[in-house]
Amino acid sequence: MIRHVKYKESAQNILEVLETDGAVIIDSLISEPIISKITDELRPYLDACPNGTNDFSGTSTKRVGALMARSVACRDLALHPLINDLCAKYLDEFSDGYQLNFTQAIEISPSETSQYLHRDRGVWGGYVNRKIETQFSTVWAMTDFTETNGATCLVPGSQIWDKDRVPSESEIAYAEMSAGSVLLYGGSILHGGGSNTTQSENRLGVFIHYCLSWLRQEENQYLSCQPEIAKELPSQLRELMGYSLVSPILGYFSPHDKKGVELVSPKHIFE
Q1: What is the pTM assigned to this prediction?
Q2: What is the DSSP string of 107-145?
């Protein structure tokens, strides 16, 4: 079972559940008007998007990225104060900061089968020590998530398992939640998209993931949201996307068209 907490729960209590179980759901964190705005902003891209073509991406599933460029309301999700407070505390042990890693709207339609269980840390291969938590992930429910319409499957506790252990059917739980709720989980827990066995329900979620500031981002934020678009964003969001320095020098650039100007922070391109 995935445990649920109220949105007024303390950050400490939420993190305790996340550390123990590997996942937690915060109920009713955003309102219906916000859900409607996000859905309206993303619908043209979802309607134009083809379904996936393999077992991982699904054959009745649509995936739309570049959410910071395409959806004003999704920017607010990425900057949500509670989420960022939790993320900072969750990843603090392993890095001087964190960054936006991945943004995607995923819509699972009827007839979709279950995605195979995996750990998101796998995008960096097996090279990051298992003792290091790589990321903090959020799935915002734009529709109700149910076991029958494709709610995310997770294996609570598997974040500390041996990597070769295979879960039994009874160990798999479903992130059932109402629209407006958000699922939180780390990069080390086994999970996957659920199957949609309904006749007419589409399950829509907004996935906004964060990772350690020294890892390469899964979604290239600088191409997904190029400077001419990023310049219109809040500075806090630009820094979260990586238009900034981490530690003294990580992420600098040298302007190719200027002499005598070196080791510049990316934030200066917006000045």
Answers
A1: 0.97
A2: EE-TTPPPPPPB-GGGGGTT-S-TTS--EEEEEEESS-B
Buried b (16+ CB within 10 A) or exposed e, 225-251: beeeebeebeeebbbbbbbbbbeeeeb
Side-by-side strand order, sheet with 182-186: 4-6, 23-27, 182-186, 135-141, 203-212, 98-108, 61-64
Indicate the pairing of strand 4-6 with strand 23-27.
parallel
Residue linked to tokens 């939420």: 14
Domain-located, residue 190 = yes
**Which tokens belong to 39?**
């859905």
Q: Is residue 257 part of a domain?
A: no
Residue 239 falls inside a structural domain: no
Q: How many domains does the chain have?
A: 1
Question: Token pair of 204, please?
Answer: 């829509």
What's CA 17's distance to the chain center, in Å?
Answer: 18
User: pLDDT tens, 157-201?
Assistant: 999 999 999 999 999 999 999 999 999 999 999 999 999 999 999
Domain boundaries, position 154: 4-225
Burial of residue 134, with CB atoms counted within 10 A of its CB: 0-12 exposed, 13-18 middle, 19 or more buried = buried
Domain with 127 in it: what CATH number? 2.60.120.620
Residues 144, 62, 112, 55, CA torsion sign: negative
Q: Name residue, tokens 């995310």.
A: 152
Measured at the CA of 221, the angle between CA 118 and CA 195, to 5 degrees, comes to 30
**Does any domain span residue 44?**
yes
